[in-house]
Amino acid sequence: MLDKPETGLEEADGVLVDRATFTGNRGLAIEEGLIFELGRPEASGVDLPEPAPFQSRLGGLERKTPIGLPGLSEPETVRHYVRLSQKNYSIDTGIFPLGSCTMKHNPRLNERMARLPGFGDIHPLQPQSSVQGALELMKEISHWLLTLTGMQAVALSPRAGAHGEACGMMAIKQALIARGEAEQRKVVLVPDSAHGTNPATATLVGFEVRSVPAREDGIVDVEAVRQALGPDVAAIMLTNPNTCGLFEKNIVEIAEAMHEAGAYFYCDGANFNAIVGRARPGDLGVDAMHINLHKTFSTPHGGGGPGAGPVVLSSRLAPHAPLPFLVQEKAGLRLVEDKAEAPGTFGRIGAFHGQMGMYVRALTYMLSHGADGLRQASEDAVLNANYVRVGLADLMSLPFGNRPCMHEALFDDAWLKGTGLSVLDFAKAMIDEGFHPMTVYFPLVVHGAMLIEPTESESKATLDLFVAALRDLAMAVQRGDKERFLGAPHYAPRRRLDETRAARTPVLKWTKPAPIEN
Hints:
The protein is of the alpha/beta class.
């Protein structure tokens, strides 16, 4: 391992200042203040004439003091935000190994299709007769989703994963109302290895949560599910593959137990990328499942674009799907928006029908891959995760043994015991190596979890470098090179924050500092 170069960096109030350069800049890494510090009230990117004399109609409510917005010229504004963008990490700059997030490449073909006239400029209040092409696309993506999942109905309107969870659970609640059992069945079973939003969603919809423990091998115990069942149970919310990166091999037995008890089976579809083309949730006994288009089907994730979380429903829940939904008539496609036409529905889950741009991108991904390509994508995602697992298994500990995983490899902190270092220290050191850290401290069923999901997008060369970098860090831990970790990141634009303090006492408003007296 080469010695680290002398940087001349000094820390002042959490900010790295380079005393080796006059400006504080380091080559193309430009150091500059906040936009409020750069701005001047007299500066502007445009020249506006003084308004003609007028009489205010604000009734004395007009502002009496300066607004306090920073003034910058257009070049200054552009440079500021471009420099900020250069500090970002994204899927377009490198591997994004966040477990349980499926941060995959967003093909540029998808973007081109989403910008086609008729898709990019339509409005939700247009007459349905003028958007038949868009409705046809919605029909087509619905067909793909139903075929891939083996389900009977799909609601496209949910905006993202948690919104989709709410949709599925509201459909279950409506089904219980229709059966006259809503007051009796108030409990939702949530395994410890389920997605973190599941218990929150169940509570939001009005259910009580009863946890179900996992076995020592990370799989949900069927007997534990049976023991938790009773006439008060409405449903189970199970993630498959679960958040430990393992396939719930007893899922069919769990579904049968739920149905025999008169309850429903909600499956969290956040990890659907691992099984597309390999297993259909409907065949496994699932009644409702959301699908993250921004995970499985490559639409932009997080800040890159709005989410989309369609929900597929079994025949047991199809009559309770939300409005609006598509029907084919002689005159063309039509959205059913009146509850009188669908007496079983629980109503709307959004003002309009969702994210048309995301539908276009997801369908483009489906059509460009084809059925065999989607299956290969899942297989490659699983292959890549196992490649990472094998590459690190001799240095980092695996909580459930060194056995095959699904689309993500889960490590714990047992290998760090006695080193004086934590998972957070290791993750921060990855930033110095140019990598976004993996998901840490999740799932909660594993102490000091490190969850890595490389997705199918990454090449063998990328994974080799990623594994080699993590191996080098792990060997530095073994050598006792604590300084490499405790102060990390050393080379990022900002040093490590006190994250607890930042979360509990955030500074949300910039205050002009007092002038420095000579």
